[in-house]
Amino acid sequence: MAEILTYEDRHFAGVEALWEEVFPTDSPWNKAAEAIPAKLKVQPELFIVAEEAGDVIGTVMAGYDGHRGWLYTVAVKPEHQRRGIGTALLIEAEIRLSRSGCKKTNLQIRAGNEAVAAFYRRHGYLVEERISMGKRFDC
């Protein structure tokens, strides 16, 4: 049975391997070496892992800016999917966000990723007609 925990430094290699497997084409700034140190500076309690027998098998990173919550890097090792681990991670992130005063949570998935969209729909998330825009800072 998976244990849901707040991220600790000992989880780094497992998280890095998981993200490489689940998000192989992700941008360099989303890689573990960049994303994890940045997250640990801001709301580290919202970085959650699923661990089984000492192995990281899932993650979720969340954030709350006082207005909206966001979910990032929701990932479960493929061989552990469909066992409720993603659901457990999602629920834990929602509980922690709610305790912070968060009233609404947003997330983004890549267009065409119907399996992931179906997962979120099963958990009450709806598609909102928005245009997602972003800007990278060179710092």
UniProtKB/TrEMBL annotation:
MF annotations from Gene Ontology:
acyltransferase activity, transferring groups other than amino-acyl groups
Q: What is this protein called?
A: Ribosomal protein S18 acetylase RimI-like enzyme
A GO cellular component annotated for this chain's UniProt record is: ribosome
Supply the Gene3D superfamilies for this chain.
3.40.630.30
Species annotation: Polymorphobacter multimanifer
Q: Which domain of life is it from?
A: Bacteria
Q: Which PANTHER family match?
A: AMINOALKYLPHOSPHONATE N-ACETYLTRANSFERASE-RELATED-RELATED
What lineage is this protein's organism placed in? Answer: Bacteria, Pseudomonadati, Pseudomonadota, Alphaproteobacteria, Sphingomonadales
Enumerate the Pfam families for this protein: Acetyltransf_1
SUPFAM superfamilies (UniProt xref): Acyl-CoA N-acyltransferases (Nat) (SSF55729)
Keywords of this entry: Acyltransferase, Ribonucleoprotein, Ribosomal protein, Transferase
Q: Where is the N-acetyltransferase domain?
A: 2-139
